[in-house]
Amino acid sequence: MIMTDVEEVEVVVAHNERATLRVGDVFLKIDADQTRTDVEVEAMAMAPIPTPEVLWRKPPALALAAVPGTALGRLGEPSTASPAAWAAAGAAVRMLHDAPLPPWPGRSLNEIASQLDSECEWLIANDVLPTDLVTRNRQVAEAALRPWTPVFTHGDLQISHVFVDGDKVTGVIDWSEAGHGDALYDLAILTLGHEEHLGDVVAGYGTDVDLDVIRAWWSLRSLLAVRWLVEHGFDPSSPGCEIDVLKSRM
């Protein structure tokens, strides 16, 4: 594939594990771990919802076509998407969760619990967050650490990964964390920092869910994310982001 008349290369995200560049209507993903790329390509092929078209793959690069529409929103910023768009996102997630499981596993409950303990210890030992904030959110997170029936999960369903055009979902991107997982984890990541849209998402999802478990995943995800964000040059203390999510549980 030859791209002509390209005016600029946009760096979408870049750190020492992976980088994503946008060149016109093509996204180039470069990943040091080709296992993640393997998962992404296979998950997109299996998912029953709109995903980016794979244009070509030449390790370590993967070229994907841009999906139409705009992101549902971004963490730390108000979403301008309609309640119907949020409900459509919930419906798309339900369709994914009802699909056959992928052949590879996801993280086990024990792995998640062990990582949570390690991250909480690190946050306190390094004075990154107040002890009472970590302790309270660790208590809240406990509700997520229960057995669940595995479903086909996206695994990193941030609102910036869901694209809509009006009230229709046009594409879901970034599938490298897909696998077996807890359905409520996907719903929690989709609504992280946007609690006001949880009702719309659940309405679109179309079944009763345990809201306390979703809130527990908000705490758990935020506790796990802080160190990684800091070490990769991101700021979890930005307004509306992970640390504010943790504070909201106090």
Automatic annotation (TrEMBL):
One Pfam family name is APH
Write the protein's name: Phosphotransferase
Q: Where is the Aminoglycoside phosphotransferase domain?
A: 43-206
Q: Tell me the domain of life.
A: Bacteria
